[in-house]
Design brief:
By secondary structure, this protein is of the alpha/beta class. The protein has helices spanning about 5-10, 10-25, 30-45, 105-125, 145-150, 150-155, 210-225, 265-285, 305-320, 335-345, 370-385, and strands spanning about 50-55, 60-65, 75-80, 130-135, 160-165, 175, 180-185, 185-195, 200, 235-245, 250, 255-265, 290-295, 305, 325, 345-350. Helix 4 links the parallel strand 3 (about 75-80) and strand 4 (about 130-135). The longest helix has 21 residues, at about 265-285. The radius of gyration is 23 Å and the shape is elongated.
Length: about 400
């Protein structure tokens, strides 16, 4: 792999940055420490401008190429936030914050883009401007949307934007992407069930919300199997079931269910939401209970790569790694980079880190050996897109 020698030399230092971020995970928009470290490093590297507070806690650094400001500006984006998961890696650099960890590799994304930014500040072998974008709140907070609404593209004149995500499902060093729809639209929902609580020894005097909630969970599975065109991908998952009591002898008065819908077609999405509402209401009524259904305020749209930009990214990946899968399968994972691609042309690519625990798993850890390749990809993309 034609990795830049500079990144081989700086590998240990960039790895130390990554592991520091890993020790200090922060959720959603509460990335104050991470954002501060990023901003300080960008200034130390010699970025021509560093702006904090874009999209609440986002950071943007501008690096002008040969000839200074002027010409096109392209954006390179990394996400910074962690997840509310208890880490189980046992690593020396494991999270020091109870119940929080970098289980999706955003620490690695941030470190790799910082490494690329340092190199670009030193060499400036391009014409135009590179905007390095460090985004909070990818994990459910729509930080990309917040940055767009805060003037990310208009304020900095960004005409194209690019993203990258590690993947433990791909071989080490394997790049993959596809043009058009790549990541699914993501909706989350909440169902609240109210019945009549009581003693577990006298269930006939109660309306058992555990039973009602279980019936709703089972009925929801019929949407994919019996209400949706088999040619249309769809996921409906209930991921949380909570009651107000954990006593063995109490039938709870209320229960709360949470879940997610993943889809690629707006018609399928709308029909699914209608069907969930009907199932929730009618199932609860059949047991004499009541139930309410609410969708999250901030859904993630389908993330679609722009064709020309995706082809360009594939060519860059080929030049760096010697290989790129240009017809990667669609994934029902969600990605709020979709908001950026709705507002600006660009593309999003996956980079394999080799087999290991999956994303969002308590034993997942970013593979630091991939750092030189990821940094090299970012630099090659900037230099080739803004070639003199």
């Amino acid at each position: 792999m034609p990795i830049r020698n500079r990144f081989a030399e700086r590998h240990a230092e960039i790895t130390a940055w990554r592991q520091d971020f890993h020790r200090h995970p922060e959720l959603l928009y509460d990335t104050h420490r991470t954002s501060g470290v990023v901003a300080d490093k960008l200034r130390a590297f010699g970025c021509d401008e560093v702006v904090e507070g874009i999209g609440r806690t986002g950071v943007v650094g501008l690096i002008h190429g040969q000839g200074g400001a002027g010409g096109r500006t392209i954006g390179l984006r990394a996400d910074m936030d962690a997840l509310p998961i208890q880490e189980a890696t046992g690593a020396e650099h494991a999270s020091t914050v109870d119940g929080k960890m970098h289980a999706c590799g955003h620490d690695g994304h941030t470190a790799m883009l910082l490494g690329a930014a340092e190199y670009l500040c030193e060499t400036r072998r391009f014409t135009g401007t590179v905007a390095v974008i460090f985004q909070p709140a990818e994990e459910g907070g729509a930080g990309a949307q917040a940055m767009v609404e805060d003037g990310l593209f208009d304020r900095f004149g960004i005409s194209e934007v690019y993203g990258l995500h590690n993947s433990p499902l791909l071989d080490f060093g394997q790049f993959a992407l596809r043009e058009g729809a790549f990541y699914a639209a993501v909706d989350s929902f909440r169902i609240d069930v109210t019945g009549r609580g009581g003693h577990a020894a006298r269930p006939h005097r109660t309306i058992d919300t555990t039973l009602v909630g279980s019936a709703i969970v089972m009925a929801l599975q019929s949407i994919v199997s019996r209400n949706t065109d088999p040619q249309q991908p769809l996921v409906v998952s209930v991921t949380s079931f909570q009651t107000e009591s954990d006593a063995f002898n109490v039938i709870p008065e209320t229960a709360r269910l949470r879940g997610t819908v993943r889809s690629f077609d707006m018609g399928v999405r709308e029909e699914t939401i209608v069907r969930i509402k009907d199932i929730v209401r009618l199932t609860a009524e059949s047991y004499g209970a009541e139930a309410t259904f609410e969708m999250a305020e901030v859904p993630y749209p389908v993330m679609s790569n722009h064709a020309e930009n995706a082809a360009f990214c594939a060519d860059v990946a080929d030049s760096v790694a010697g290989t790129c899968d240009r017809a990667a399968p669609r994934t029902t994972g969600g990605e709020d980079f979709a908001y950026m691609l709705q507002a600006c042309p660009g593309a999003y690519i996956q980079l394999g880190i080799g087999e290991g625990p999956g994303l969002h798993h308590p034993e997942y850890d970013f593979n630091d050996e991939i750092i030189p390749l990821g940094c090299s990809y970012w630099v090659a993309l900037a230099e080739q897109r803004l070639a003199s």
